[in-house]
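Let's inspect one such protein example.
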Amino acid sequence: MKTIYDIQQFLKKFGTFIYIGDRVADLELMGGELKELYNSQLIETKDYQSAILILRQEIRMEKEKKANEKR
């Protein structure tokens, strides 16, 4: 997995479709779903780790972007 789109497609394999409308909330919810799948031993450790890393980076970028828009 290399992008958020890849993560969305991965989650779709498990019947999980996420769209709230708030980008950060969507990303955090994806992280929660991945954690549940990992804890249930439905996904590999490397898939979980790479997806979580991508999500954390994207969340950080989105929060920085929102902070810069307020200035």
The chain has a mean pLDDT of 95. The CA atoms of residues 35 and 70 lie 32 Å apart. Helices lie at 4-12, 23-39, 45-70.
